[in-house]
Amino acid sequence: MFNYSVRRLLTAVPTILILIVFAFYLMRLAPGGPFTSEKPLPPAVMENVLKRYGMDEPLHMQLFTYIKNIVCCFDFGPSFSQKDRSVNDIIAQGFPVTLTYGFWSAVFVLVLGIPLGIIAALRHNSFWDYLMTGLAIFSQIFPNFVLAPLMVLLFTLSWGLLPGGGWNGGQWQYIVMPAIALGTSYMAGVARLTRGSLLEVLNSPFIRTARAKGLPERTILIRHALKPALLPTLTYMGPVFVYMITGSVFIDVFFSTGGIGQDFIDGAYSRDYSVLLGLAIIYCVLTFSINLVLDLLYAWIDPKVRDSL
Amino acid sequence: MSLLSVQDLAIRFSTGDGTVHAVNNVSFDIAPGEKVALVGESGSGKSQIALSIMGLLAKNAQVSGRILHEGRDLLTLSQDALNKVRAKKIAMIFQDPMSALNPYMRVGRQLTEIVELHEGLGRADARKRAIEAMEAVQIPDAKNRIDAYPHEFSGGMRQRIVIAMALICKPGLILADEPTTALDVTVQAQIMRLLDEIQSELNTAVLLITHDLGVVAGFCDRSMVLYGGRMMETAPTKDLFAAPSHPYTRGLLRAVPNINDAAGELRAIPGSPPNQLRPLTHCPFAARCVDAVEQCRSTLPELTGEATKRACLRPVEALS
Predict the structure, then answer these.
(1) Which of A127, A210, B204, B311 makes the best surface tag, with the fewest CB within 10 Å?
(2) What is this model's ipTM?
(3) Any idea where the ABC transporter domain is (chain B) (predicted)?
(4) Model's pTM, two decimal places?
């Protein structure tokens, strides 16, 4: 398993390189640039600015310098649009924010979604099952840009319980609404997925064997059924978790949390090449690591997978 | 004194198409240590009878009748009381060893949890018992194999583990539901020999459910033939094979391919199994029976007789 992890990490390096090259050229293909404005800069000024950011060199040299700086000094370059701030600064400021509310959002998804799914499956075709399934479908189709304003309307404007935005160093009152708004539809997805797969597992022959042993239902659920029933949920949660901890543009804009989702949107508008590239690399690395963790979790659950590692 | 007494057992399933009458007023007894075969084609209800004894029928099943075991009706027991019977007093061997074992759990754990539950053994004692059980079913190197997962065993070895699970508490009755159907012919013979050895060693009663008459011939004292959820004939196995007294049993035995048969054709019973969506009002085999007379299509024959019991309106002498 250790060898497998090392192998996977090694294959990550060329993948990230390819991603950098692609993203780099793709961005340059987009019309405009970081210093394009309505009133064009005088040519002499423009020349100076370009020189200051190393953009007077040929493209492949810029790319080479960029990669070299990352590899040798972990330096993702200066921001093109925000004066005197480096990409490292921007990420160091924004990423902890998205990581925090993203993490709590994922906790909310799992802690609520899995038990709801289990209850619905155990009470199959009962009132609680229909209620849960109905609620889940409802919240799954309920977009966060409707849910977030609704929550602000209720919890902030009507009842004054929670602040309607901001971050304030990550106090819990500021995390609750972004985390719930971000997670609700995924929570519903997890609940439905858990319900479906647990129902399937509970109907499988090896559960019948367990019943034939005289085991009480609770033991059967915990010891025999839960692990296999959570496999699809695990698959589902992988990409969702990456999406959550890298932040949502909508959440950052609506709640003014100041996460990297906001930086991504700003970077795209102002053609801030280095910020966009830096964020793309973060997404890539996170996707890689989470997938690795997921695969190891699979192996932990399923002995057949373990043998094939 | 019988160990298990099934009386007037009827099993119906409510489905989208209507009510399926899977088992229709079946009665039989099993004596301690007796080896009984329950023979029938697929859909005859034989597996459902075993599942009803274990209380493992699907949720849409309705059961009536009585299943008496040690003076108690298993059909009326509470879940907790039934759990104390399962595996401890009556154990079941399932048909497909590929799916009957939990693929996510070491086989040792799947064995130890039974004795931990029913005999209150600690981890170490339970493990010792599990190894003994695996050795009893002749799994080589049981000491090390106990920590393997099901997928690391062959089909035959997995079925041995399923058998080990059934016998680990030394139950008085084992229900073996097609224990060899999913296995190679050579492995089938090994498994049946193993069952036979274990049976005589523990003097456990066995209800062998099968469609394979060859398996029955070598193993069971007594055979019961089921058709359309109705008992057609029960007789000592020797008599049943030597002189089948029911037209359906005769058709079944004639359908077993014989290598000395010059023509080399397969002699199937013409027609198809009965529509079980209608309640039984007459002999379910009448439509396919070569000896059927008008009365067979209007009257439901009762199972009568001494050593050999048959449910047929026509006297044995009149059969073709």
Answers:
(1) A127
(2) 0.90
(3) 4-253
(4) 0.85
